[in-house]
Amino acid sequence: MTDTHDAFDEWLDEARRRVDRAPLGAQAEDLGRVETVGDGIAFVSGLRRARLDELVRFEGDRMGFVLTLEPDRIGCVLLDDAEGIEAGQAVHGTGEVVRAPVGKALLGRIVDPLGRPLDGGGAIEGESREPVDKPAPAIVQRDFVTEPVQTGTLVLDAMFALGRGQRELIVGDRAVGKTSIAVDCIINQRHSDIVCVYVAIGQKSSTVSRVIEAIRSHGAFDRCIVVVAAASSAPGLQWIAPFTGFTMAEYFRDRGQHALVVVDDLTKHAATHREIALLTRQPPGREAYPGDVFYVHARLLERAAKLSKAEGGGSLTALPIAELDAGNLSAYIPTNLISITDGQIVLDSRLFQEGQKPAVDIGTSVSRVGGKTQARALREAAESLRLDYAQFLELEVFTRFGGVTDAQMKGRIERGRRIRAILTQPLYVPLRLVDEVALVHAVQAGLLDGLALDLVPQFRKAVPAWLDRQAAPIVAAIQGGGKLDAATRASLDKALSALAAEIARASPSPSPSASPGGA
Description:
Blueprint: H1 2-21, E1 31-38, E2 41-45, E3 54-58, E4 62-69, E5 74-78, E6 90-97, E7 99-102, E8 109-111, E9 128-131, E10 148-149, H2 154-159, E11 162-163, E12 169-172, H3 178-188, E13 194-201, H4 205-218, E14 224-229, H5 235-253, E15 258-264, H6 266-279, H7 293-301, E16 305-306, E17 315-323, H8 332-340, E18 343-347, H9 349-353, E19 366-367, H10 376-381, H11 385-399, H12 407-423, H13 433-444, H14 456-470, H15 472-479, H16 486-506
Parallel strand pairs: 8-14, 12-17, 12-18, 13-14, 13-15, 15-17
Antiparallel strand pairs: 1-2, 1-6, 2-5, 3-4, 3-6, 4-5, 7-9, 10-11, 16-17, 18-19
């Protein structure tokens, strides 16, 4: 009996201590009611203190955020399935904005735009939760873009070099290799210090699965983050997805590291923004897009930056993707994005159908940072490559109307065909810097002029292993940032000439040149 009294007294003392520590008094709670709901949008009345972008909680712990403020109600975009949300239900204001987890725990994971795992792994405990929509670094916090991002794609690294902190748009018709270029760039970072974030917006599950499998098989997936807002996801998730990707990447940039964000793609994001805007009765503008769609994408992409040394020296590089309709570069969203970014890689469907992959149109593509970020050795090797290739493409048009009799013109055309052959690159086989320098030097120095055109792909494939065996000092020097001086050129000439001669000898018979469209 004594034991029972002692236990009761102990419990009573603890209960009194809890009561003494409990905050007493009135507690205000912002509470509203659902007026209507449908198509991922809910109109709510009663939340008079709600702010734009505020996170609100519906019954069943479903979340949404405030998009529009009207005199008697607010328009909320749902971040979860609308099933179970009905008119008359209570809605709670949280006073918070939409946040996502950030930190190293996200590396190697596949998550939704709220940071919830989609890969079957355990819950993600980020170091903190940061707002998905954050201001871009101020001008005084930025530095010049001077360090290269090696994509491993020869046509890009040689002609349209990318820099850390740059925003380069990848644009083209449907199914011409836009995502492939971005994935190759991610794969090529397996030996670099760049953390990659891939954001899929409105993509089919099969497409996203192929991308993930490619990165797992060929890249360093343990240094990547995949954010997925599939076509079946709520419109709100698709809308915040790119902002979440940038927030997760900024964690590394703000700590002096380097990150790359691929947004696939912003035309689907713009379509989601238009859908949400029209459902919340915002006035439509050109092509029915609301006028603020430019601002939405501008404030997103401005977050890509190279920070100054005082801010840690980190960088965030952005590769947004946009889709064209029948090659129409003057459409509303592509022109918006072209004016926001630091250049564009334009893919041409005609080149793709002719077998030129990557199908980069060198006439309309541009990098507004360019040679300032290009590796020194590659810049010296490719000094006149773009001009030579552009002149060849013009000359080739005239050959279709008749034969070319001038020997000099014939030589330039044959040289141009070999340039096109070395620019053709298979998927998921990014090149080292030294391999790119060697290929460009070989074609520009005329070392491939005596090699049959149909043997050039074989030469291209054999270069990496051959250099490792025959020119190891050159490989080490160029990979270490060395320049292409006279001695290096002479050594490259010797090694590459020997490879071309060996391939020619191994060929059963001289092969005829391919047709102008081939390569």
